[in-house]
Design goal:
The chain contains 18 helices and no strands. 53% of the residues are buried. The chain is mainly alpha-helical. The chain has helices spanning 8-19, 22-34, 38-66, 70-77, 84-116, 125-136, 139-158, 161-188, 193-201, 210-223, 230-235, 244-272, 287-293, 298-332, 336-356, 358-388, 390-397, 407-433. Bound molecules: tryptophan. The site of tryptophan (TRP) has 15 residues, from helix 1, helix 2, helix 10 and helix 14.
């Protein structure tokens, strides 16, 4: 039987589940903190709407046109051409991302357990920092929690697209929303919360350096899970009577809304306790537990917070494992069961390498988010005008029988604006890595 989502809500929950992840809860706040707050936020919104969303839509369409996962879809649409190599690159990149992502998810699971069992309560600042280095610096502990996390993901994905991924996304996404709203209420009612909101809402444009633009671009692709064909694979599961543009818009809006709520949850907290929100990746693991410890009922809120992160991480990992499993089925001819077992074994191997060797962790992280995602998105977006063509693309986006009013605008973005923007920002950052500074 062909895999697919059973309902419209389920398809959106699964795709939004993929989009909403640690990228929203962990990466977005510290990247925003490091790049100046509100000004960054404005650029991020613009990039999400004008650049990442057209890319997401292109992925959905490529998947649904063929009903196949990304590599097979590109091969079917462009036989005898080399486009399918982008599919390979994407599948490989899914492996890179899920490898380090599941290690971070494992740490989060550990923190959830720690806060539930009272292990975080009453620790001083140095002890909290030590608790983090105890798990992140210990290969055995990192591997242990990563394996637990991967086991849960594999169990759910092995049940199939509708019975596993869709069903669980439909349960977990509302849970996530409730948990984050609880945290936002807590954060906004702290004394001094206004400062944090001001940081998030009043822009300082002097902070908008080329580096910040690049960070915003990378973050918008990463957050919408677009650029490596994971969403094309999900697109293959979307029914033809659904409007892909409406789905892409819902996913992008949900994703942004949750990232924004994560900002509302974290910045007022940080400011209320006099902590610099630009403190980098440690924000979630060191800074926030310290803040919770100074709060009434802090252990409870710490638990809710980390549970929220576990939920977000789970639904994102579904999509990456599914991209690997679907590749195994469609391109390697494996049965779904066998593919799940083999791909899970690879993920465990990749995760272990990331847990044991910090250099591998950093390599996988940088290579995927900063290099492969922009290149992949660039190619996928150009695939639309170069291979699919305007009228066929329109036909796919209107296959549900409705009219897509903004088609001309979206096609223009897809054909010119998105590739050009990716090229410019990418070239600039490449040059600055090589030591040449075009714009300072
Ligand atoms: N979007 C997820 C997040 O924000 C991460 C993610 C899941 C992802 N699947 C992806 C990123 C595919 C890039 C490609 O955390």
């Amino acid at each position: 039987m062909k895999e697919g989502f059973n309902t419209k809500v389920g398809a959106i929950a699964a795709a939004a589940g993929s989009a909403v992840g640690l990228g929203n809860m962990w990466r977005f706040p510290y990247v925003t903190g490091e790049n100046g707050g509100a000004a960054f936020l404005i650029v991020y919104v613009a990039f999400t709407l004008l650049i990442a969303m057209p890319a997401l839509l292109a992925e959905f369409a490529i998947g649904r046109m063929t009903g196949k996962p990304v590599t097979s879809a590109l091969l079917e649409l462009a036989p005898k051409k080399k486009w399918f190599l982008i599919g390979f690159m994407g599948v490989f990149c899914s492996f890179l991302i899920i490898s380090f992502y599941s290690v971070v998810s494992g740490w989060i699971l550990y923190y959830t357990w720690l806060s539930a069992s009272g292990g975080l309560a009453g620790l001083g600042e140095a002890e909290v920092a030590e608790a983090f280095s105890r798990v992140s610096g210990s290969p055995a502990a990192s591997v242990f929690w990563m394996v637990l996390m991967v086991a849960v993901i594999a169990l759910i994905v092995s049940r199939g697209v509708a019975k596993g991924i869709e069903k669980w996304s439909k349960i977990l996404m509302p849970v996530l929303l409730v948990l984050i709203l609880v945290m936002c209420v807590r954060s906004l009612t702290l004394d001094g919360a206004a400062e944090g909101l001001k940081f998030l809402l009043s822009p300082d444009f002097s902070k908008l350096t080329p580096k910040a633009l690049f960070a915003a671009l990378g973050q918008s692709f990463f957050s919408l899970s677009t650029g490596i064909g994971v969403m094309a694979t999900y697109g293959a599961y979307i029914s033809r009577d659904q409007s892909l543009s409406a789905d892409a818009l819902s996913v992008a809006m949900l994703d942004f809304f949750i990232a924004f709520l994560a900002g509302v949850m974290i910045f007022p907290c940080a400011f209320a306790f006099g902590i610099n929100p630009g403190s980098g990746p440690g924000l979630v693991f060191v800074t926030l537990p310290n803040i919770f410890n100074q709060m009434a009922f802090g252990s409870f809120f710490a638990f809710i917070f980390f549970l929220l992160l576990v939920v977000a991480a789970l639904t994102s990992c579904f999509s990456m494992l599914e991209a690997l499993v679907a590749f195994g089925v469609a391109s390697l001819g494996l049965s779904r069961k066998r593919s799940t077992v083999i791909m899970t074994a690879f993920v465990l191997l990749g995760g272990t390498c990331c847990a044991v060797f910090p250099a591998v962790f950093n390599l996988f992280d940088n290579l995927s988010a900063n290099v492969i995602l922009p290149i992949g998105a660039f190619c996928i977006v150009l695939f639309v005008p170069l291979v699919i063509g305007k009228e066929r693309y329109r036909a796919e986006l209107e296959a549900h029988g409705g009219k897509f009013g903004s088609f001309e605008i979206v096609y223009f973005l897809t054909r010119f604006v998105v590739p050009l923007a990716i090229f410019l920002i990418f070239a600039n950052s490449l040059l600055s890595w090589l030591g040449v500074d075009l714009f300072g």
